[in-house]
Specification:
2 domains, Metallo-beta-lactamase, Chain A, alpha/beta, Rossmann fold
């Protein structure tokens, strides 16, 4: 199955009909372009008494099966990574040997990718091309422009994918945050200019399409987090997504304002902060102490930021809850703040973790229980989706990055804002954008691979 010069296709192998393991293909004039290559994790099985998660024997890291494009890698012009979240970048070290194509991405994302590739002894094998926002590159039959948007990680990019037969706007993960704190912002004119040029299809994030209103800005969280830390008398541990450099910046400001020392607990947090420094987007005023020193400080001077907001095993917060973290032990009167919301499927593991913390006498503050915002989503709610459709005015809307209810809600928003045609499908469906918009169901077999004992295995 090869697109000819009259064809413009979109073919998702992962991330459409689900949240996670994004892997998207665009086809035109004999070439394929891949956008994102991410992982997902198995849904929790049994939760034990200590709150640990048992996954019924499944590999702990899973990703979309790339067999379709691996069999055609001579026609794969390149791979673009839109941003550095695991569900968009995490599968590259596992799958690149099957693809063997150049990788295009932004500076911060490239810093994260290099660290991942080094663990697999691939650092000097994978050609990484760093692209600036606003830059255009010819990649095979596709002319691609990187467009600035905001998300819960520095320097995410949307893409304008141009061909002689038609244009596609690929949003990636995004929100409209006028005060993102770290990294680039966005301009509505970027997207209204696309409408003037003409956009045949908009392939867009559906995660929060069921949520009314507008997402909260990162800048709006300072007051709530400051109040929570100020009211604490013992140690404070904040758990959040390690990739949210803006949240770390806010916590750094709060540490200085409250006379606390901030340290990072967890490998992903340490890697992200190092990448932010290397990319030039870490505020030099945000000084961190060695986490090994936290246990020697008076309790009221400690502000630790820990991995484990989703109840994952072997993370820093899990080890603190079990009393086996090497840097310090939580005590009654300490406070743990969840500056994150549960990813669907993780609720049971998070509840078990919170119960364990409370059994220690630790005060737990969650985003759901806090009277003021202490967490902001990185995805667009309905008002933002409506605004983007009004700016871009695509002829066809293709919702992705969501389960069925999210994509259906997204399609309704597109129709309500005047889009003439919506195509709602799932992994393996072929979306034909040119010459005639339409969809063929389950043209390609899809599935999952897992990483087990240093090898890729099929996951049923």
């Amino acid at each position: 199955m090869t697109p000819d010069h009259n064809d413009l296709w979109f073919l998702p192998l992962g991330g459409t009909g689900e949240i996670g393991m994004n892997l998207n293909l665009y086809g035109h004039d004999g070439d394929w372009l891949m956008v994102d290559c991410g992982v997902t994790f198995p849904k929790p099985g049994r939760i034990s008494a200590d709150g640990s998660v048992h996954h019924r024997g499944e590999p702990p890291v899973q990703m979309a099966d790339p067999a379709f494009i691996a069999d055609r890698r001579d026609r794969l012009a390149g791979l673009i990574i839109t941003h550095a979240h695991e569900d968009h970048i995490g599968a590259v070290p596992y799958l690149w040997p099957l693809l063997q194509c150049p990788v295009y991405t932004s500076r911060f994302t490239a810093e994260i990718l290099r660290r991942k590739l080094a663990e697999f002894d691939l650092l000097h094998r994978v050609p990484i091309i760093v692209v600036d926002t606003g830059e255009r590159r010819q990649i095979g039959a596709f002319n691609v422009e990187w467009l600035a948007l905001t998300h819960s990680i520095p320097d995410p990019n949307a893409l304008m994918i141009r061909t002689w037969i038609g244009n596609i706007f690929h949003s990636g993960d995004w929100k409209l945050d006028d005060q993102p704190l770290v990294g680039h912002g966005y301009s509505p004119k970027t997207f209204t200019d696309l409408a003037e040029e003409g956009v045949d299809a908009m392939v867009c994030d559906s995660t929060n399409a069921t949520v009314a209103g507008h997402s909260i800005s990162e800048a709006a969280l300072h007051a709530g987090l400051l109040a929570a830390v100020q009211s604490a008398t013992g140690r404070v541990v904040v758990t959040c997504f390690g990739s949210n450099i803006a949240r770390l910046h806010t916590l750094g400001l709060i540490a200085r304002a409250t006379g606390r020392y901030m340290g990072l607990l967890g490998r992903s947090l340490i890697n992200m902060s190092a990448a932010a420094r290397a990319a030039g987007i870490w505020d030099s005023a945000d000084r961190l102490i060695n986490p090994g020193h936290l246990g020697y400080l008076p309790r009221h001077e400690v502000l630790a930021v820990a991995t484990g907001s989703q109840g994952e095993p072997r993370t820093a917060l899990r080890r603190l809850a079990l009393g086996n973290h090497p840097d310090f032990e939580l005590e009654a009167g300490d406070t743990v703040i969840f500056s994150a919301r549960a990813i669907p499927g993780n609720e049971e593991a998070i509840d078990a973790l919170i119960a364990r913390l409370r059994a220690l006498g630790v005060t737990v503050i969650t985003a759901e229980d806090s009277p003021v915002p202490i967490h902001a989503s990185g995805h667009p709610a309905r008002d933002e989706l409506e605004a983007m459709y009004q700016w871009v005015r695509p002829r066809v809307a293709i919702p992705v990055h969501g389960e069925a209810e999210h994509m259906d809600a997204h399609a309704e928003i597109a129709r309500r804002t005047g889009v003439g045609k919506t195509l709602v499908g799932r992994n393996g469906d072929l979306f034909m954008i040119r010459p005639v918009p339409g969809m063929r169901r389950q043209v390609v077999e899809t599935g999952r691979l897992g990483w087990d004992r240093q090898a890729l295995v099929r996951v049923d």
